[in-house]
């Protein structure tokens, strides 16, 4: 094997390792879910896309409903199923509209509900 081929092979292996770390880092280092609060008053929960921090995937929102006794009940629902227009795919955020973001821990009730599929 020539030096060029060895160098190319080593480069491909290193690139694969780095790409693997980027893709699986959230599962290695804990929750990759964030809360994002916008100037509109909307609060979203989701995972930041590895290729852009302004894109949320697996987005959830809090929805308020009333029970039989007319008491408010909060639930966490899939964003794509909770709005009338039925968005598909990721949520792209306007950077100027973001007031704050916060990384959620694995102990967060929101993260636990998302992982349980509720």
Explain this structure to me?
The chain is of the alpha+beta class. The chain contains three helices and six strands; from the N terminus they run αββββαββα. The chain has helices at 3-28, 79-82, 109-116, and strands at residues 33-38, 43-49, 52-66, 72-78, 91-92, 98-103. Strands 1, 2, 3, 4, 5 and 6 form a six-stranded antiparallel sheet that branches. The longest helix is centred in the N-terminal third of the chain and has 26 residues, at 3-28. The protein starts with a helix and ends with a helix. The model has no long low-confidence stretch (mean pLDDT 82).
Short account of what is shown:
With 118 residues, this protein is an alpha+beta fold. The chain contains three helices and six strands; from the N terminus they run H-E-E-E-E-H-E-E-H.
């Amino acid at each position: 094997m020539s030096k060029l081929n060895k160098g190319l092979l080593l480069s491909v292996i290193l690139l694969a390792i780095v790409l693997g770390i980027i893709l699986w880092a959230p599962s290695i280092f804990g929750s990759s879910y964030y809360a994002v609060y916008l100037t509109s008053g909307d609060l979203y929960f989701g995972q930041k896309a590895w290729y852009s921090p302004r894109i949320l995937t697996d987005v959830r929102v809090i929805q308020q409903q009333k029970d039989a006794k007319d008491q408010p009940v909060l639930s966490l629902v899939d964003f794509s199923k909770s709005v009338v227009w039925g968005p598909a795919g990721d949520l792209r955020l306007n950077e100027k509209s973001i007031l704050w973001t916060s990384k959620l821990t694995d102990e967060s009730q929101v993260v636990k509900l998302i992982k349980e599929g509720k």
